[in-house]
Amino acid sequence: MADQSAPQDGTAKAWSGRFSEPVSELVKRYTASVFFDNRMAAQDIRGSLAHARMLARQGIIGQSDLADIERGMAQISGEIARGEFNWNLDDEDVHLNIEKRLTALVGDAGKRLHTGRSRNDQVATDIRLWLRDAIDTILGLIREFQLAVLELAEHHADTPLPGFTHLQVAQPVTFGHHLMAYFEMTRRDAERFADCRKRVNRLPLGAAALAGTTYPIDREYVAELLGFEEVCFNSLDAVSDRDFAIEFCAAVSLLMTHLSRLSEELILWMSPRVGFIDLADRFCTGSSIMPQKKNPDVPELVRGKTGRANGNLVSLLTLMKGQPLAYNKDNQEDKEPLFDSADTAIDTLRIYADMMGSRIEANGEKIFNVRVKREAMQAALTQGYATATDLADYLVKKGLPFRDAHEAVALAVRAAELTGCDLPQIPLADLKAAMTHVPGAIERLAEDVFQVLTVEGSLASRDHVGGTAPNQVRAAIARARNRLA
Ligand code: ARG
């Protein structure tokens, strides 16, 4: 008996032939992805064109079919670019929307495009093409961020800042050295994205629905046309795994974690209680009720958005864990978290590269968006006995065992606390008096101790690769510039 419910007027779904009733409106909306996967339209068309060229080259479709497909796709690309393409929920996803429009434009050639292909290998290909572009954008932006950081670090290669452990003043470092820590973190982030890109850059097409196809296809040729480094070597794996997307989201989470830590520091440094820096107004907002406020909204949002990046990673891990081979519709849920993580990383890097950057004033002066208040950093350094370790090291170099030196300096700090001054201000006689109980300490103390007790002396003496001595910071910056060249 003839099927009553599948319409014969061209509005039928691509797969509706065997169905006896149409899906409900709610199911249609629930299962459709077109309003978020149409972001991959350019990649879908690129993938289809490569597939069609391969089919024609192998004699599976005719040369005239290929010409029709190319003409139709050019027209569709134009319609999408001009915002004229009519995305239709009835056609479920980006793939069916484009294929349907192609058929409307070029007829039978459009219907031949899907030969030897399934939406399962098609969508896996599209995501990989999309993600490869996103990774390249992110790599470029990490570089921009790093160049800004290097410039700021160079400007402050010998600006002293209290280094903290447990959020308590520990030892002097330079602000340049501190910033270079973030260069190193983002260098590893860039390595992670570049490494992830290798696994993204493999071609699923040819896997078809799950088992491969009976047509004499040439997968290597398609891979070459699309710039893939190799093909996916197992058809079941090719259509079903999204580990590359999970890896990407993990790399985004780590990048965001690093930028979130930097944000936390900017927020802290900008707090009037600390007052180490000021941030250009355009990255801050005021309060609608408290007129005195200038809030570091951008860093706070970066810190907040790190949470959503982590959420996306967990979403994808959870999405994957229960899926049997091969493709399951669950995988349609991979896109929104993936897009969101990419968008978050891209927007955050863009804004951060700007925030860490500078501009040249009309009078030629270079103004950094992160304005350092040198005196506040210096003042903090004189309050926390930041050179106590230097005093201990001084005694050790004169022959006192380290544990005894540690004890002697602890006594000196206690004496300093009682008199309310910093270590370099204590007269030599008083320093000695404080240490009398430690055998061997006082005879090792001499006037030259005051050279190591200054912040400058302390900084200059950490003079090895990775240390905070200003010349080492400059060397690190030069090394970093070479890497980015
Ligand atoms: N929109 C689908 C997705 O994102 C495309 C693949 C659908 N394949 C299928 N057999 N239903 O995964």
Key traits:
single chain, 20 helices, binds arginine, two-stranded antiparallel sheet, two-stranded parallel ribbon, Fumarase C, Chain A, domain 2, 3 domains, 485 residues, Fumarase C, Chain B, domain 1, elongated, Ribonucleotide Reductase Protein R1, domain 1, mainly alpha
What would you note in describing this structure?
With 485 residues, the chain is mostly helical. It has three domains: 24-115, Fumarase/aspartase (N-terminal domain) (Fumarase C, Chain B, domain 1), CATH 1.10.275.10; 120-367, Fumarase/aspartase (Central domain) (Fumarase C, Chain A, domain 2, Up-down Bundle); 379-484, Fumarase/aspartase (C-terminal domain) (Ribonucleotide Reductase Protein R1, domain 1, Orthogonal Bundle), CATH 1.10.40. Helices cover 59% and strands 6% of the residues. A two-stranded antiparallel ribbon has the order 1-2. Strands 3-4 form a two-stranded parallel sheet. β6 and β7 form a beta hairpin. The protein is elongated. The N and C termini lie far apart (72 Å). 40% of the residues are buried. The mean pLDDT is 95. The protein binds arginine. Residues 33, 37, 93, 119-120, 123, 329, 331-332 line the site of arginine.
